[in-house]
Design brief:
This protein is mainly α and about 500 residues long. The chain contains 21 helices and nine strands. About 50% of the residues lie in helices and about 5% in strands. The protein is globular, with a radius of gyration of 26 Å.
């Protein structure tokens, strides 16, 4: 027995030595050589820009009646099919671990370093952009405690009220815009939007401020006026060269380096872009959009839409363009004859991604002028400036997007703002042109539609829809929030209202 115990002791001793030996270098073996405990802000900022821009809401293309599909899954945005409502989870699920976490890292890394004040300011503006898009889809969201799971083990963040989020976004934009210093270093080439140009970043900040301010016209008109006028005084985007857009996308290689909207639309509906065998998900332009462009003799029609006449040939002639009805649930026999996005413009992987343009700011300024908040130019002049800018911007997408000045002026001549009409009639004109002019930024059009009611779209009362035949007012929180953050989830729906598509968010009022 003693002999046996002695053998066990020897084995245990040997094993313990072995474990100690194995422990040597264990930390090194289990450390990712490609990771960094202190990320480089310039690299992370670039990634945050790419991720923030990539949240192109293709489903809202259908909701704003630009596109549709006979396929219930692909056509959720145009049909609001009950079984597909989980598609609204994606923006929330993807934003927090990506751009929200990334831009939070950047801010933490550059805060408190006076020489990096421009990097901090740009990061704050980009953070405001990313959060504004998220809250405008869901309403109340995690904001003040967001991204702290990575730094403070706070895995169940509380939801902030959208009213409070808006107040902080405006403060952030105001402070960031004022802090830019042309004498200090910037992100330089790591900045895919402006290449470190602080003057353009300031215009972007003030333009975001104007956009945010105008959202509040139905819930806090005094604050809306104050912030809109502050933005106008600061200087918003008015020139083509100043528009906020992500540049540098490429036509081949890794998908993250391609225009996200073009890539998503191509992969979802228009691959391999030819006659007959493309459109596996049944996507086409919707009749509402194409009919409007045709009936108004809009020169953008041929820039945006084509009909495939053979496997290698497209036709952009106005007479041939035809939109498909969102009420269809099966593939029509004449499917190939319907219009779809122009592969030479909309579907170009190396085209810029437009974030906030001078077309948008001019339309917003036209409303501000109608309200008497802006007197430098008339609402009519600003409205026409918005139309002109919205047509010029397509030249950025290649020679197929060029609309000459004669075409622009002819269109404007037949679409003047009726300055003698009542306020609501002029708003209808402005935001119907906004609908066409800001395309393909469907998320911004969706927000403006909910605020103003324009354009006056007729909802699609498709069989099996989740909204009672109405255009939904918000996205749904993902299932994971109900399971993993239940207490805060219950608190937010008790405050904001049911987690349903028709629940209105703070600034969206009848």
């Amino acid at each position: 027995m003693r002999k046996y115990q002695r053998k066990l002791s020897i084995l245990f001793f040997a094993a313990s030595i072995g474990l100690q030996a194995c422990d040597k270098g264990f930390d090194e073996m289990n450390t990712d050589p490609n990771s960094s405990s202190s990320p480089t802000p310039t690299y992370v900022f670039t990634k945050a820009q790419l991720d923030g821009a990539s949240r192109a809401q293709v489903l809202l293309q259908g909701t704003m009646q630009y596109t549709t599909s006979y396929n219930d899954v692909a056509g959720f945005g145009a049909k609001y099919v009950l079984s597909q409502t989980q598609q609204t989870w994606n923006a929330f699920t993807n934003a927090y671990p990506n751009e929200i976490n990334e831009i939070t890292q950047v801010i933490a890394a550059v805060t408190g370093k006076p020489e990096l004040i421009n990097q901090l300011a740009a990061a704050r503006v980009w953070r405001a952009y990313c959060f504004s898009r998220l809250t405008d889809l869901y309403g109340d969201i995690p904001y003040s405690q967001a991204a702290q799971g990575y730094t403070s083990a706070l895995y169940k963040p509380a939801y902030d009220e959208q009213k409070a989020i808006y107040a902080d976004l405006l403060k952030e934009l105001d402070e960031a815009a004022k802090s830019f210093d042309a004498a200090k270093i910037t992100f330089g080439a790591a900045d895919l939007i402006y290449g470190g140009d602080v003057n353009k970043w300031k215009k972007f900040a003030y333009s975001l401020m104007l956009r945010t301010a105008m959202r509040m016209t139905k819930v806090d008109i005094a604050a809306a006026q104050t912030w809109a006028q502050k933005a106008i005084t600061g200087g918003v985007i008015l020139e083509d060269a100043d528009m906020a857009r992500v540049n540098g996308y490429v036509s081949s290689g890794q998908d993250i380096n391609k225009n996200p909207l073009a890539l998503n639309m191509y992969n979802s509906d228009y691959n391999p872009a030819n006659f007959g065998t493309n459109n596996p998900e049944g996507g086409k332009y919707q009749d509402v959009f194409i009919n409007y462009l045709k009936s108004n003799k809009d020169p953008r029609l041929g820039v945006l839409a084509v009909v495939w006449t053979s496997k290698t040939t497209v036709d952009t002639s106005a007479a041939l363009q035809k939109g498909m009805s969102a009420t269809l649930g099966t593939k029509p026999a004449d499917f190939v004859t319907y219009s779809e996005p122009n592969p030479s413009t909309i579907l170009q992987f190396n085209s810029p991604y437009l974030l906030l343009t001078n077309a948008e700011t001019n339309f917003l300024l036209a409303e501000a002028a109608l309200r008497g908040w802006y007197t430098t130019n008339s609402a009519s002049t600003l409205y026409e400036n918005g139309i002109s800018a919205s047509m010029r911007q397509w030249a950025l997408f290649g020679t197929g997007g060029v609309i000459n000045s004669n075409q622009i002026q002819t269109y404007i001549r037949y679409h003047k703002l009726d300055a003698t009409a009542p306020f609501e009639s002029q708003m209808a004109q402005i935001y119907t042109q906004f609908w066409v002019g800001v395309y393909p930024n469907s998320q911004e059009v969706y927000a403006t539609y909910r605020r103003t009611g324009y354009p006056a779209l007729t909802p699609n009362n498709y069989v099996g829809n989740a909204t009672g035949g109405k255009i939904f007012r918000r996205f749904l929180y993902p299932q994971n929030e109900q399971n993993l953050n239940a207490e805060n989830y219950q608190a937010v729906i008790a405050r904001q209202g049911p987690d349903e598509l028709m629940t209105r968010i703070w600034w969206d009022r009848p």
